[in-house]
């Protein structure tokens, strides 16, 4: 399944910047960064549960928020990109 | 069930593969060209001598079951990063015993060869159906060769020893490749198939076939390893240092239906032309670098296409077929299946 993860982490305190870094790192391990705090991840259900719990454990629920959008397996029709930094299609041919 | 995962191909000269968290990062000229999470990948293949890789990434790949292979610029397999042998030692021992036993070897090899011939025959018949109507002699040549292959299938299934079986296979391959020219629908001197040549390939079609076969070999090798089998110990292909005998055995049933058909599509649809090949002074013909990318993209697209597995009756992708066949072979070796059900294209 394809999941869009967005977050808002309050960085007014040093511990906030630390949380932000950790949340970003956890997302980077599992998906591609499409915008600053927006990640697209191709995951199987088990991997999703693990990642979700990890992120929930990392944030401070009083100041930060997380949102998970399930784009399903036919996600290509639901994503429309304009402008710079187009991502790559994780299901398409990967060639550098 | 194993999921169809992507393969990352790196052809960019002077790039370096690094581990970045749980991802692989392709670095080039101090910038990250691409960053892909490893859990989305089944394999990584590099082409060319100037592509490096960090030992840390090699270790992670071998641990996580991502096959990391290094090929030279022409796509010829050179090396792979491998950790401790994965899989089940009991299965491996069973495989070695079966390989040492002429009867069990013959039983498995018969099915591999019969499937190869049957699938080659399907490719010929399909060519006759699709392109035979416009030229009667093409139709005749293809159906005659297909009829001859039908006899060879019988012979393969009743062969009494491995050498006889190899004879049947060689004879069948001759018939198939003699008719191969009739599968090409475009005119002109560039794409004329005369005879199979390799090391080096001497014409564009052979260059393309060799390249596709090496991609197929990479996939089969990883499928064998991932299923806990020893890719080096084959039944039809006997042991030789550095040769992945079992991967080559399993490859027989796929050559025509995956590699040859893709080659024919690329040529007949004019996605590749004479401008995509270079002839060197030695007579060797190779694909140009950009053209290799065209081939790799089509290869990946072909692998993602879906089909129904004739034996398992499950929906799957072409890219997963090697894994499914390796697992079916493992089930046969364990004694769960009476015979090895080779892949037959319907």
Short description:
Chain A is of the alpha+beta class and 96 residues long.
Structure commentary:
The complex is a heterodimer of chains A (about 100) and B (about 350). Chain A is an alpha+beta fold. In chain A, about 30% of the residues lie in helices and about 25% in strands. Chain A has helices at about 15-30, 45-60, and strands at about 1-10, 30-35, 40, 65-70, 95. In chain A, strands 2-3-1-4 form a four-stranded antiparallel sheet, covered by helices on one side. In chain A, strand 2 and strand 3 form a beta hairpin. The radius of gyration of chain A is 14 Å and the shape is globular. The mean pLDDT of chain A is about 90. Chain B is an alpha/beta fold. Chain B is built from nine helices and twelve strands. Chain B has helices at about 55-65, 90-100, 100-130, 135-160, 160-180, 205-225, 245-270, 290-305, 320-335; strands at about 5-10, 15-20, 25-30, 30-35, 40-45, 50-55, 65-70, 75-80, 275-280, 285, 305-310, 315. In chain B, the strands form four sheets. Chain B has a four-stranded mixed sheet with strand order 1-5-7-8. A four-stranded mixed sheet of chain B has the order 4-3-2-6. A two-stranded antiparallel sheet of chain B has the order 9-10. In chain B, a hairpin with a 5-residue loop joins strand 7 and strand 8 (about 75-80). In chain B, helix 3 packs antiparallel against helix 4 (about 135-160) and helix 3 (about 100-130) packs parallel to helix 5. The radius of gyration of chain B is 20 Å and the shape is globular. Chain B starts with 5 loop residues before the first strand and ends in a 12-residue tail after the last helix. The model of chain B has no long low-confidence stretch (mean pLDDT about 85). The interface of A and B includes residues 30, 47, 88 and 96 of A. Strand 5 (about 95) of chain A pairs parallel with strand 1 (about 5-10) of chain B.
